Structures are given as C-alpha cells and as structure tokens.
Amino acid sequence: MGHWLVIDLEATTDDGGWPITDMEIIEIGASLVNREGREVDHFQRFVKPRRRPQLTPFCRELTHISQANVDAAAPFGEVWAQFERWLGHYQPRLEGWTSWGDYDRKQLLQEWQANGLDSLLAQVPHLNLKQRFAKARHLQRPLGLNGALQLAGLQFNGQQHRALEDARNTARLLPLTLPLQGS
C-alpha cells in the first residue's frame, strides 16, 4: 500500500502579497498519509530566510510565526537535508506528493534551484489538489482550503496558515478527491 505526501509551506510576504521570486520559505509542514488519508508520520520545521530575515508585521500576524521562531531556525539547505533524510525512509512507498494549489511546488523549485539542491520529490509526481478538488466537485473555479473543507462538511482543525496544520487539513480532502482505495 502506497503513501501520499501532503506539503504546505509558509513564506515571507507582506500585505498585498509579493511575487513568488521575492518570497522565501519560513516553515515546512508535511503530513505523510496512507491511502485512507490517515497520517503515518509528519515533519515540521521553521526555516531562517536569507534575503529578508526580518518578518513583516503582516507575515507574523498571518502565520502566527514569531521572529524568534525563524531567528532560531536553520537555513533552507540544512532544513531540506533534514526533510530528505526523513522522507528517505518512506520513498519506496511514496506514490506522489500534493499541495493545495501550485504555489508550494513552484516555491520549492525556486528554493532547490537557488540552493543548488536535488530532491527526492522531483522524482515523484505532484498533484495540485486544489484543481483536482474543483474538477471532482464540478466547481466553476477552485476554492481556498477552508472553503473546500466547508463544502466537504468539514471544519478546519488547528491554526490556519501554519504549515503542518494546513498540510493535515489538506490531507483530509485527499480521500474525498482521489480514488485512493484500490486504485
């Protein structure tokens, strides 16, 4: 039986948003789930941003991540090495990875490139669950994570805009969106 990895990232930003090229990852959250959508393991780490080490007040308020959290964190390259070691145990059974939307995939590609890194994730398919959910529910346009949960009759668990909580809530939509059992 295979596993799916659900990833969510938090990144530097400000009111009105920044282009992805200006954003840096400040938190990585991942929930590894089985085909029934049950969590097998998880990973969560803060990341110290390089280019703009000072979080904006908007970013701190949105994510509930403090300046002290990122000041005490390791840079992306070190955190990603920890993530890869963690994921390595599960790679033989990993069917794919998913995120709510395409932002997380694009941000990771940018960080891998900026840090000269290869990733195990580059070898497995990525699924944009936001698009897949909208298609499965015949929606005219994709919903945000909270809206999708509500449509599915679920309440958001935990603190929104925290990487692990967002990943876990995204994982709850996986069995409702994919034909996971017996596929």
TrEMBL record:
Keyword terms, alphabetized? Exonuclease, Hydrolase, Nuclease
Q: Which GO terms describe its molecular function?
A: 3'-5'-RNA exonuclease activity; nucleic acid binding
Tagged with keyword rRNA processing: no
Tagged with keyword Hydrolase: yes
Boundaries of each Exonuclease domain copy?
Answer: 3-183
Please indicate which superkingdom the organism of origin belongs to: Bacteria
GO biological process terms, alphabetically, are: DNA metabolic process
Q: Which Gene3D superfamilies match?
A: Ribonuclease H-like superfamily/Ribonuclease H
Which protein is depicted? Inhibitor of the KinA pathway to sporulation, predicted exonuclease
State the organism of origin.
Pseudomonas japonica
